[in-house]
Amino acid sequence: MSAIISVQHLSKVYDSGFQALRDVSLDIRRGEIFALLGPNGAGKTTMISIICGIVNPSSGHITADGHDIIKDFRAARSKIGLVPQELCTDGFESVLSTVNFSRGLFGRPPNKAYIEQILRQLSLWDKRDSRIMELSGGMKRRVMIAKALSHEPEILFLDEPTAGVDVELRRDMWEMVRGLRERGVTIILTTHYIEEAEEMADRIGVISRGELILVEEKSALMDKLGQKQLRLQLQKPLLELPTELQDYPLSLTDDGLELIYHFDTQSEQTGIADLFRRLDEHGIDYKDLRSKQRSLEEIFVSLVSERATADTEAAE
Ligand SMILES: Nc1ncnc2c1ncn2[C@@H]1O[C@H](COP(=O)(O)OP(=O)(O)OP(=O)(O)O)[C@@H](O)[C@H]1O
């Protein structure tokens, strides 16, 4: 699949001297949902703002659908819709006129049928004549999406699309984003919610302290880094692990009722058969067992903290 956005060696140092991005290179594939994950202040919004022409890069080269975002700004920007983190729109205007106005800003001729289609898709058609200030928070967010889609962009940036949104609306947003992808729109979303990336993304990028520390297919990331846990519920509580079993990657819950065995899904030998044999030898009976995959959240937390430790060690 070809790249619709290409970011090459992007760095950003703000006027304050703060370096928000360091040598970031990234290709976004046409038609994918790409989730950019990272803690507060990692540089996600800075990166989006540069691609959308709101913030100037310090160095690097970016194209959107083949157009250089600086030399060929208008053509590049017309391909992009941006839903910013903050709700920013005139509360006195009606939904319909706000969305039509946004389309006009891109020099697009009016297209009633298209605007009606997006407002219907976002369940805003019945509210088209309402003033924005009269809408609920969730509806206002949907208006921001309608505005971003008004000029028929091929690329949609969603900066924290579901921050502060209730669970039901979050599910609706996910549905809507999937619908857009089916129509061929490429979607890049930033999020703190790992659950959101896990649910939605085809690929995931992790950004930490201005550096892109990982880009991976979601499924591969979960497989590669995914460790599994096998939890055995014991018939009788154990006071402690028998010494002969202490070499195993085993832990005992505080109540002594569960043994937890960690194994790598990638390794050829999980060691489970051997473990069962040893438990049998020691007369440890269990009544139930279940296995659990490490979640993306656990993977993410360990990646970012490994990175922070490596940075601290390098600085010492
Ligand atoms: N105009 C600015 N001048 C100086 N520093 C800035 C400016 N804008 C952002 N920063 C700094 O750059 C860093 C990255 O900010 P950015 O908003 O890109 O992070 P983020 O990953 O989007 O965070 P969040 O998840 O909190 O939105 C932060 O330390 C922030 O304080």
TrEMBL record:
InterPro entries: AAA+_ATPase, ABC_transporter-like_ATP-bd, ABC_transporter-like_CS, ABC_transporter_ATP-binding, P-loop_NTPase. This is ABC transporter ATP-binding protein. It comes from Zhongshania marina. One of its GO terms (molecular function) is ATP binding. Keywords: ATP-binding, Nucleotide-binding, Transport. Residues 5-234 form the ABC transporter domain. The keyword Lyase does not apply.
